[in-house]
Structure prediction request, 619 residues.
Amino acid sequence: MSPFRLASLLALAVLLSFLAIPIVAIFVEAGPRELVDSLGREGSLEALWLSLRTSLVAVVAILVVGTPAAFLLARRSFRGRAALITVIELPLVLPPAAAGIALLAAFGPQGLVGGAIEDAGVQLVLQTAGVVVAMTFVAAPFYVRGAMAAFEAIDPDLLDASRTLGAGEGRTFARIAIPGARAGLASGLALAWGRALGEFGATLLFAGSLEGRTQTAPLAIFRFLASDFDASLALSGVLVLFSAALLLGVKFLGGTPEASRAAR
Amino acid sequence: MLRAEISLEREAFSLAAELRVEPGRRLALVGRSGAGKSTLLRAIAGLVRPEAGRISLGGSTWFDGDAGIDIPVERRRIGFVFQEYALFPNMSARANIAYGVRGAGRRERRARASDLLSVLGVAGRADARPADLSGGERQRVALARALATEPDLLLLDEPLSALDASTRSSAASELSRLLLETGTPAVLVTHDFAEAALLADRVAVLDGGRVVQEGAPAELTAAPKSAFVADLAGAVVLRGIARLAASGLTEVELAGGGVVVSTDRGEGPVAVSVFPWEIELHASAPSGEGDSALNRLAASVTGVTEFGNRARVALALPQPAVAEVTSASVQRLGLAPGTSVEVSWKATATRLTPG
Prediction:
């Protein structure tokens, strides 16, 4: 075996153990029994349920708005396109605390558009709706990026062919573009959902950590940390399992992007 | 009748062309890659928007730059065959075709798709995905799909170029038969003049975004307007200087040596075109008695490529040339690289264009 091959194998082993050991540790420290027990503790299930609901709403909003927007960005070239994409990608690199402050500055009571939102009768700060806003803000770029890459990879002749066969732009989008980008859309969705579920900093600053209203699972983990480590572990375990299921589900549903590219 | 007047500007490329296709006729756009053939076809389809011009089919106007009319692709009633066929990879052959059937229920669409698959002889492959079809089958499914919309106009972009050589000629004659049967006017793009002559009844030669000559294939071979057209039509093109000879014929002194005569008029630098099948080969100097070929030149064979019962013989005149002869002649004359021969062709087969 060449020294390089040996070094690469070693690097892979180091990487795998570093990434896997903490995950394994959660389940070693909290067996299935403790897991179920501590979930019954006050607030745990509530927090999980809140996380699930809010992230679902965020993900649906991201899908509905992000998919056609990503399609447009991927298929059209226009002046300022690169700048526009940078704006969309910005939340990816924004520190979550800064994202929280930015949301307050924009949608808070004294924020840039806070007045207008209040006039419309919508409350965001310290509200469940605020959790959804924070999740959507940080998670949307993950999906939009994936969706754009997936749409860009579609053979433009397929979209043209659909038009020549009498299908308008809408039908072409629904029947050809979305199925063609399925794998990429699914993996973007999984990333965005995972990011939304894990949202912590922006939610804390923008929506607070009110039990039953804005305290999502990650915030509950933080609250339990000092008083009840087992409960923290159990909640973490559930989040890990859910995220893993998400990832596997996506691979199963969408196939890998490589496989669908080969099929074309 | 299709009338198209299209001008279109792109970076380092401009297209300005005028085309007409009579009802039930087929026009081939021929030219080198980059000549603008595919762009022109896409403009007719509405996939590319011209800067100015007018496109109309029968009584309906599809595009009018001045009037601001631009009917979207999906309402132009065209059938388009893409170069790589562009079959939807996630659908079966039948579903690909059913996709284009208009205004019918699901069952009817499937039935119509099955009919078209039968017409094209691929009924057995209805449930196969494009990835599992052979090149020839893909081409037929693509054709069936283009016909599914019952188009008023068929547009075919290099419909045979994705096929390998072995299936290409049979696919070409089949396509020709189908185009005649459907009677739908068609515009097709090809870089192969022989293919254009087989599939279309008129040919428009494009060069640098302009139509340089248009006519029936036989007209183009008989009287090419330029060396470019002659070359594209498959002629041997030789360079030389022309002057009027005492006989009333034009005499051309070929670059590199040799003199030929032509019945065409010409003066100064010219391009001499002669088709490979008009060039005769002789083992030794022909006697000249009982032979009406006025042009005789010494040449040496540089290569022999046999296909079927014919052979293309590459020659150095010394300018490069090609003669097409039967395989029997290759045997009889013992043609091989290095063989010295005499070539001859008639003055009436010698076409002159300004060089």
Chain A is about 80% helix and 0% strand.
